[in-house]
Design a protein that fits this description.
Number of helices: 3
Oligomer: single chain
Shape: rod-shaped
Number of domains: 1
Helix content: 40-55%
Mean pLDDT: 84
């Protein structure tokens, strides 16, 4: 009688005509199905890890390219400002030179035509010259550094019959390191008319 009492509530849940063994095996199968469907298989996890790895690589590459773009633009702007400042200083002082006093030569061991010496309207000697990668301006006894990234500075007379016109060419270079060593180059050229013949 005790057995029947213990099975009675369960027997009410079973469909009529099913045995206790069939009902319990169905319950076990249902439990297995819910247990297996609640997790991920190893293959699914491997696929997710591979996809996430590819996404990280793509994002990393995009960030590196954005950083490279930023560094190149910043370097280009710095070099343009440096070239503009140097050319403005050259233009300002060369315009005040006496054309008959202008001499183009070189500092020993430096590129040809990389030094310009002249006397200005106040009879003061002014000199622009390249020494290594630096361009200096010497105004009397004062020496001022104009640029530190010069590869090449050239003073030339474009016309042999007109010594009041002088051409100035300036090439700047700067090493930058992003993924590998790269060289940024900027060139500036200008013709300057001397106002004092």
């Amino acid at each position: 009688m005790n057995k029947k009492r213990g099975l009675r509530p369960f027997a009410k849940l079973m469909a009529p005509g099913t045995s206790l063994r069939v009902a319990s095996s169905g319950l076990r199968n249902a439990q297995r199905a819910t247990r297996n469907s609640s997790g991920f298989t190893l293959v699914e996890l491997a696929i997710v890890v591979a996809i996430m790895g590819m996404i990280v690589l793509v994002i990393n590459e995009l960030l590196l390219q954005a950083n490279q773009f930023f560094i190149l633009n910043r370097t280009r702007i710095e070099m343009q400002q440096e070239a503009r400042g140097t050319m403005n200083m050259l233009n300002h002082h060369i315009r005040e030179a006496k054309a008959s006093s202008m001499v183009v030569d070189q500092v020993s061991g430096q590129p040809y035509y990389s030094r310009l010496t002249f006397t200005d309207a106040d009879n003061q000697t002014v000199r622009f010259y390249q020494e290594g990668k630096i361009v200096y301006m010497q105004d009397g006894t004062n020496v001022k550094k104009l640029s530190e990234n010069v590869r090449y500075l050239v003073f030339a007379f474009p016309r042999s019959d007109d010594l009041t016109l002088i051409s100035v060419s300036l090439t700047l270079e700067k090493m930058i390191y992003i993924r590998k060593r790269q060289l940024a180059i900027h060139m500036a050229s200008e013709k300057i008319r001397v106002m004092n013949p």
